[in-house]
Write a structure and sequence with these properties.
TIM Barrel; 20 strands; eight-stranded parallel beta barrel; about 40% helix; five-stranded mixed sheet; alpha/beta
Length: about 575
């Protein structure tokens, strides 16, 4: 063990020396005087330049990995994480995966808990060194000045033509903010040179505040787009709910998708004899209050309902309707690939009729603006040995049509029959979407039916039998909410472009973004801009409880600056 540690330290020594010398390149002026330290923190990493491993790039679950130039030109890590690129001892960029590895630096790459640590702690300007098995990070006055310069540089590169038509921000306003940041930066450096660390830090933070405002106000604010958020209600009374709705309306939101049916409950009373009201809301009707408040604050209410996923072991639907549960090939009711999730079988007429009755009663009773179907799919079914559904009903229906028991099909030996089985399962979901569409058009033709889907159509169809493009082509749904949950704005842009290209021209595409991952306000603003650039008609944030006051402030200064109308 001791010998391995010595080898590791010796291996890293040339990189550490290179990083320390590189600091001079990025902070030439700041290096002439001592930095005033604001905070120092560290984290252990798991591996350096992993080889001969099973995961892309060698980054496993919850692991923190260091990639140096000795590894290659890029990390090779998949999208389920995040990375920080360090050049010359300074964090240069945070976000994304499969990053290029700089020749005079390295990449810190994390998955799961490690990714969350990166998002929470690293940003451009943080100073980084390696000591043994630890990553040592320092935030100083120079960090704030570096980040300020980076923000101004990024803002200067944006297309500012929209400012000409913006009644709330002018070019003079932007120039003033930029100048203000630069002046605070100059005062910070002067204080540092004189040895006044307190003033140096104070002025550096003021420079950063002005730079952030400059960056946010340089963003385009569209006046026709959906600005929505998903929301699992935590409010205990109509008064609390009004405070929430007022807050998001003042921030610039024009839509909310409340989680209305989930885990075997409805948030409202008398949904169906078999669908009880969530005990957290007994004594009042949150959906009725939402509809009232929506009119007051000019916000669209689009109830978000979970369809075939019906909760966990304590779900009342799992207990009362156990005969409707989906059954896996290897004999499980709860999914092992989505740990502990119970699903209803999409092929059962009883399941479809049950939900149609629930939805019909809801749309007749409440003045809502749409209906959003979530978990409108099978449980994850790759690898195929753990796929769904192999209940008696599914096997009987398929056997009656093709004279083959699907439980006996081997996809390698019988690929043609296996493809029929996959198509059969996809057809079950599609048929239910069609039935909901017909019901809505007969009762409330003013309502739009939407679905929460995976943006990669191939993955959605092959792994979950969710053929959302077919639903759009057939006119069964008119709106799609993708789930582009990542810290990488470039990946959001690629996924948004892909699904916009796949869909027919008449549909409305909204991109779901994931601030629940913990990323900072700037990352959210960058992702919104990435969505706007693809022509998508708006976005929905998952979810409201993860939006801090700083997030709301950034939205209000930036893309939510002007009021917007839902297309």
């Amino acid at each position: 063990m001791f010998l391995r540690q010595v080898v590791r330290i010796c291996f890293m020594f040339p990189y550490v020396c290179l990083l320390l010398s590189g600091c001079q390149l990025f902070h030439r002026e700041e290096s002439l005087y001592p930095h005033s330290v604001i905070s120092v923190f560290d984290v252990s990493f798991d591996k350096i330049d992993p080889r001969n491993v099973d995961f892309p790039g060698g980054r496993g679950e919850d692991q923190m990995i260091l990639y140096t130039p000795n590894f290659g030109t890029a990390t090779g890590a998949n999208q389920w994480g995040t990375e920080a690129v360090v050049i010359g001892g300074i964090v240069h960029k945070v976000g994304g995966n499969n990053s290029d590895i700089p020749t005079n630096g390295f990449v810190i790459s994390g998955h799961g808990k490690a990714a969350r640590w990166i998002v929470d702690n690293l940003y451009p300007g943080v100073e980084v060194t390696i000591e043994g098995q630890k990553i040592i990070c320092s935030v100083t006055d120079a960090t704030c000045l570096y980040q300020s310069s980076s923000l101004i540089e990024e803002a200067d590169a944006l297309d500012a033509s929209h400012i000409e038509w913006d009644p709330l921000v002018s070019m003079n306003d932007l120039r003033s903010l930029k100048s203000q940041s630069e002046k605070w930066g100059a005062r910070s450096r002067k204080a540092a040179r004189s040895g006044d660390s307190r003033q140096s830090v104070l002025f550096a933070k003021k420079a950063l505040d002005s730079a952030f405002e400059y960056y946010y106000k340089s963003q385009r604010s569209r006046q026709i787009e959906l600005r929505a958020c998903w929301h699992r209600l935590q409010e205990k009374s109509p008064q609390e709910l009004e405070r929430t709705i007022k807050k998001i309306a003042e921030a610039g939101f024009n839509g909310v998708c409340p989680e209305t049916i989930y885990w075997g409950y409805a948030i409202y009373p008398d949904a169906h004899p078999a669908l009880p009201q969530n005990p957290a809301f007994l004594g009042w009707d949150p959906l009725e209050e939402l509809c009232r408040l929506a009119h007051k604050y000019k916000i669209k209410v689009i109830p978000w309902v979970e369809v075939f996923f019906i909760g966990f072991d304590q779900s009342p639907l799992k207990k009362e309707k156990s005969g409707w549960l989906a059954f896996s090939r290897n004999g499980d009711y709860p999914s092992t690939l989505e740990k502990g999730y119970y699903y209803f079988c999409p092929s059962r007429r009883e399941v479809r009729q049950f939900w149609l009755e629930v939805y019909e009663k809801m749309i007749r009773k409440y003045d809502i603006d749409g209906l959003q179907l979530d978990y409108i799919r099978y449980p994850r079914s790759l690898p195929w040995e753990q796929g769904y559904c192999y209940c008696g009903r599914c096997r009987e229906l398929f056997f009656n049509k093709f004279e083959v028991d699907p439980a006996l099909i081997d996809p390698v030996k019988n690929p043609e029959v296996w493809e029929k089985w996959n198509q059969f399962r996809s057809d079950q979901v599609t048929e239910f979407v069609r039935q909901v569409s017909v019901m809505l058009k007969e009762i409330r033709p003013d309502l739009r039916l939407s679905a929460d889907v995976f943006p990669d159509r191939k993955e959605a169809v092959e792994s979950k039998f969710q053929d959302w493009k077919l639903w759009l082509d057939k006119g069964y749904i008119e709106e799609v909410f993708t789930m582009s949950y990542t810290s990488d704005a470039d990946q959001v842009n690629r996924e948004s472009q892909g699904f916009m290209q796949d869909a027919p021209p008449q549909f409305r595409g909204y991109v779901g973004l994931g601030p629940y991952l913990g990323f900072p306000p700037k990352t959210l603003i960058d992702q919104i801009r990435a969505v706007q650039e693809t022509g998508a008609q708006g976005f929905c944030l998952f979810s409201l409880e993860y939006l801090s006051d700083d997030h709301l402030k950034a939205l209000k200064q930036g893309p939510f600056r002007l009021p917007a109308y839902v297309p």
